[in-house]
# Entry
Amino acid sequence: MLQVNQLLDNEIIDLTCQVFSTIVDDLNNGLYKDINGEISVRWSIREVFYAWAAVDITDESTPKHYVGLTYETVVLLYRDVEAYFKYIESGIDNDKFDTIFQDFEYPKSLSLASSLEDCKKNMFISGITWLFFHELGHLVQEHGIVRQEYGCGVRMDIVDCASNDNVTNQLLTGKASAVSHVTEIAADYFATISCLRALARHFDGSVFDEEVRSFSVALALVLYRFHGTESFTPMSKPKGSHPIPLIRLEQTQPLIFEVYSKLNVQETLNSSLSRLDMINITSWSSYTVGLFWLRKNRHFEIPEDYFIAGSMQRHEMLPYHKHILEVWDEIKPRIDEVKRIDDEYSELQFSPHYRNILENIVLGSGN
Ligand SMILES: [Zn+2]
# Structure
């Protein structure tokens, strides 16, 4: 039986269409107008959590780009948001949270400034916007061209899929795999920066604070869906087409406090969130989503190494990060030649500190 106020599948799809049509109109009246191109959305009825970026290459001077999504993706994401709210409101794991977050006033309820239904919608909108911007990142940086040049695939389409079906489970190895991984990380970076900018542009005060938390949870919900219920298995060099989802979460969540600290949101947006508050929010949201995902899938034991850690704290992953850094430095000049947008802030970058740590890692034949 449907719960009161639960959205129907077609209402979720309608809501998504409204959100995407606003984004697409803005892009077509701005960025895509400037490059004499066009972007649009394509839908698929495949029953899998699945998004993609496609390019019509008939005429390079008038680029036609497509962000594709299955209906199933948006319905599943909305249902995840609903179930996550129910999980938090139930307080079933509050004893665990009380211990882990003893120094942090974590929210026992997710609807503070807005109604419960609006909160769910806002979190969902954050999630689908991030997915859209991820695909947009592939498109505006023309990752398809670079991937093709490195043998990542025969076509320019880029597919992001939660299940290991044969759509994305290309058994890429070596340089092709590294290029595929790093362009995924670059698309995540673009998407996260774009979402953070949009939140800072549209909100301030307590509503901004609530949106930050909501976005952090949405990001974790999307990436835990990709991750599943398995333990984290380290890899010393890239394999396959996509990075480990927990690594993607570890690379994107810190952008929240890095970007907003630089923006000084307490002054500029009248936010009450300090840098430490935002660090706590990102670990709280990732941890609660991880536990929620296990409960949702009826896993009653917590797999080993299931939650996020700092990227640099996973020593066995340092060679992997070095591969990613080196390949990004190698392909970046080519991306600069073919990209459709000149916006260095949304382009993947590594701090001098990060580079220093990786400088001492020696890559041998085994990694
Ligand atoms: Zn992707």
